Amino acid sequence: MLKVEGITKYYGDFLAVDHLSFEVKPGEIFGLLGVNGAGKTTTFRMIMGLLEPSDGRITLNGKPIDYSVTDEIGFLTEERSLLTKLTVREQCIYYGTLKGMNKELIETRLKELLERFEIPEYIDKPIKQLSKGNQQKVQFITAIINEPKLLILDEPFSGLDPFNVELFKQEIKRMSEAGSMIIFSSHRMEHVELFCKKLVIMLHGKPVIEGYLQDIKEQFRKKNIFLKADIDIDLLKKIDGVVSIEERADEYEIKIRDNEVVDQVFSVVAKKGKHVTKFVVEEPSLNEIFVAKVGEEYDK
Ligand code: ATP
Fold first, then answer.
1. Which fold has domain 2-217?
2. Calpha distance 4→260 (Å, rounded)
3. How confident is the model at residue 294 (pLDDT cuts 50, 70, 90)?
4. Residue in 7, 8, 9, 41 to alter for ligand 1 test, most ligand atoms within 8 A of Cβ
5. 154-165 pLDDT per residue, tens
6. How many CA within 13 A on the CB side of residue 157?
7. What average pLDDT does range 77-95 have in this prediction?
8. Where are the domains of the chain?
9. Side by side, which strands form the sheet with 150-154?
């Protein structure tokens, strides 16, 4: 298990991370999110052992982070780090050996991964001759060559086409099912929602939202009703608890304060509506929660 306990980081007088705590268990994909400058990269660097926390503790399976543990951590960060003059094979042998693997094992694993990522023909190509997306695949393959126990993924899908996003997603799921701990960061909330059952959203170095996605959605309480019907919309606007109604191409999106308002909206629709073809109650998206909660705190 990865345990982050009250980590704090000062750059001079500037407090970049302020008493952040969370845990990631084997098999879990944990979302570490925040606006630009919230402190995510600083947190990643502390977990990877590249920066010393000013305070707090980080342990991986009970051991503090030092070079004996960093072998078990793989990462794909935004600062891409490829040795572009080397071929794919040479780069993987170089990194794999640094992680304590023997050449035979590296070769077997590399071939398997290149097949899965659908680029086996590039094994002896210099990396600089590959397209940006294929370079990203090579970077990902390098990060997971030794099947790390902890994998840090910072915007792993940026610059990838939809087919390659799918390949990356499959591999991330496979690793989590095989028991890796994964920390996932992205500004694309729909990706986060797809993967992460547990998350923290940071602002100014502090968590503003944390816990299980399901609980976060329930606590937020606001829900959306999607309605297709012929109805005088002013009747719905008058209901106490209806926050707003947005007219879409062929449906209404009704934002409500909480679950209790659903019955009232439903009874007005049942009495006054005609041609009702849709009445769907949905939980808010993570994007909606992010914008609402972070927006509330942003200027404090
Ligand atoms: P982004 O989403 O833009 O990558 P982030 O959440 O990763 O942002 P960090 O890079 O961790 O944010 O930065 C957190 C804060 O610390 C920012 O205000 C940044 O300006 C500051 N900071 C980062 N590195 C340093 C440094 N070496 N010296 C001084 N301040 C720094």
1. Rossmann fold (3.40.50)
2. 38
3. confident
4. 41
5. 999 988 999 999
6. 22
7. 84
8. 2-217, 223-283
9. 73-76, 150-154, 181-185, 29-34, 198-203, 206-212
